[in-house]
Amino acid sequence: MGFSGGGWSRNLETHFQKVRMVAPSLKLQDLIEEIRGAKTQAQEREVIQKECAHIRASFRDGDPVHRHRQLAKLLYVHMLGYPAHFGQMECLKLIASSRFTDKRVGYLGAMLLLDERHDAHLLITNSIKNDLSQGIQPVQGLALCTLSTMGSAEMCRDLAPEVEKLLLQPSPYVRKKAILTAVHMIRKVPELSSVFLPPCVHLLHERHHGILLGTITLITELCERSPAALRHFRKVVPQLVQILRTLVTTGYSTEHSISGVSDPFLQVQILHLLRILGRNHEESSETMNDLLAQVATNTDTSRNAGNAVLFETVLTIMDIHSAAGLRVLAVNILGRFLLNSDRNIRYVALTSLLRLVQSDHSAVQRHRPTVVDCLQETDASLSRRALELSLALVNSSNVRAMMQELQAFLESCPPDLRADCASGILLAAERFAPTKRWHIDTILHVLTTAGAHVRDDAVANLTQLIGGAQELHAYSVHRLYNALAEDISQQPLVQVAAWCIGEYGDLLLEGNCEEIEPLQVDEEEVLALLEKVLQSHMSLPATRGYALTALMKLSTRLQGDNNRIRQVVSIYRSCLDVELQQRAVEYDTLFRKYDHMRAAILEKMPLVERDGPQADEEAKQSKEAAQLSEAAPAPTEPQASQLLDLLDLLDGASGDAQHLPPLDPSPGVALVYLLDLPCAPPPPAPIPDLKVFEREGVQLNLSFIRPPENPALLLITITATNSSEGDVTNFICQAAVPKSLQLQLQAPSGNTVPAQGGLPITQLFRILNPNKAPLRLKLRLTYNHFHQSVQEIFEVNNLPVESWQ
Amino acid sequence: MQFMLLFSRQGKLRLQKWYVPLSDKEKKKITRELVQTVLARKPKMCSFLEWRDLKIVYKRYASLYFCCAIEDQDNELITLEIIHRYVELLDKYFGSVCELDIIFNFEKAYFILDEFLLGGEVQETSKKNVLKAIEQADLLQEKTEYHSKSFIGFKKAY
Prior knowledge:
Chain A is built from 36 helices and ten strands. Chain A is α+β, with helices and mostly antiparallel strands. Helices cover 50% and strands 22% of the residues of chain B. Chain B: Belongs to the adaptor complexes small subunit family.
């Protein structure tokens, strides 16, 4: 019989179609192959949609024979991200079936598709109950597994009695699962602790590792939830010690060992529980001391398993009341970990040492060289930790050596660590500088290496530092001049250098400075450099302000005539930048109308005392400056008055405050607090920052500090940032508080916030609140933005109670 | 442990075991972000990273990434051992396991995991016992499954 084409193939086609409908559905593996064979996402989707249609049909038809296969396929496509909710009911049916195959897939489906959010999940409770009480062991296992994976609180409450019964079953297979299911149940329904606490002590006598492990996990969970349970279980500490000791000394069984370490999972779990029980409890801690020492010294450290146990031991030693010698041993173990070739081990060592550096400082100090070596790590998360730890280890005796290392690191470190490194170095230098000159050098080096990454107050700090060290004025100005001559791009450096040259230009030109090579600088060069800064597109507006002021000051410091300076000042009278324009106008006026006062006004800054009363000098400076401009004297110190009095506050530029970086009369307070925080956990919980204002990319944030030594004092730092495309200029913030509080505003860091994340303005408010009255704060902001003047008055909501209680 | 994810170097999910209740949407989001983060890691980096408020422990075995999320007080090093033990179990069961085995037998991968961990905690530390339990369950499954013999011949003809 031949094949005659057309008719025959058409019949075959219909025949095929019929066959497809009654043929057994695709096997799971065939479907997977088909999906993997799809060349495009669209093709894959098509295959899956077609198959899902079949699966749905099959579910509708209620075919019990292939249901498990259909669900398995559905679970596969679910993993690929396709919807599978129509399979939920099928899970129920499969679980209720008596066939083991069905139950296996049904329970798996329940774990993957059902969860407490779906009401359907409760429907399996009954099946689980039946399986738990009447099923064979593998079935009981499935039910317990499912319950402990997705069991909701209601399910747990319902099924607790069943699980409790299973704890007493002879079969270890079921018991170990029941115990861990109990752990889950307690997590969901803490009241069930009372049900599962009693059997624990008895279970500890078991020898089966799985049961022991589960029991210890259960006890741990109970103790973490209830102080009463914790007290109760302290009595098993000797037993736990015994179990661990047996494990470590004689418990070598290949079945449970990894690389010669006996059941490290169990060891770690026991050690963890011991930690919880020994914490803050002398007696328990003493009971475990010897054992911990034993484990710490005898565990094989050639492979990760042993190191995992050792690590847990170290954590336990450090957390309980251990003998001093034991603590040192623990820190030394961490020190050895730092030398391990496995970088995972180095990671946990660095993390742990960081946690210990405050409490066991001298022990950790011994490992300083190794820590410093870790700065060279290629993995950024390791080098970051090494950096934090190194900074925490700086003290007065090692400061020179450490700074050298850290400075070297700063030069080559990855960009995201730069800012932290720079500010860390500066903070450490503040605390431990052996000499002022060293301090200045250090800051200078940081500014040259990572100027863009330093914090805003670095400039203020450095100028203050230099200002206060008369013997170093010549040295500073020379060094800064040289640095500036080489590079005018690093803004903080340029600002400080400009200020310094302005102040001490005469010393620069004298050329005498023993400490560095004499250099011949002539007036024209100095002026040219400052002019270059003024004109450079790299200079921020604030920087240019510094440069202009410096030029002005030089008019009284230099010998030659002032024509060049006058010319520059004159040009800037029509500068587009309003800040600069204002200054230039003022300085020009100084030349033209108040020349007799010029020398006095531009006199050198008096020596600055860090904690002394700056207010006088400041006021003197500003009063004189005030005679020039129409504006009111700055810094504004509005009386703490009714909230409505805000409008009485004088309008006006605090333009002259830029003469000088804001002298904070008591930087000591805020600084001391900050310095205590390098990498240690903050002692009193820090008050969260508060965003109080946002408009077109201009944002105002408040951060709060309550210095512990002065509970009535609240320091608020306002930070104004600008993420918009337009500069914010003439920014003034005024504040008012209720009568019972006292408010003092320090001079702001500036009045301009350049666009696109330029240098923010910060301002410090000091609020005295001795009666702990509820804090209320009203703010008035005025500024120019996008060629419009903006005024906003508002009361700050959501002030954290920690700011006044 | 809060969850364990297995995924390929192309970011395809091969197994997901969640021990905390989360919506499908949240699971997808977490999976997507975490896969991206882990795949971006360079080979010489350490196996631990901090992500959201969790610690992530991951390790690559051939073409598969094994990724676990643990809590702050959990021991990272022992988690590495957990991952390794799971891989050993798979290896013993499938005989030199490769990614394809886990793709085509994903339910088995789950069953094996469920004999090793329960509710996110280790339930059995003996490799032997875990494999024995799986073996017994497989046997039980075979015994109770019935084959639809009548259609097999038919299918083969075409």
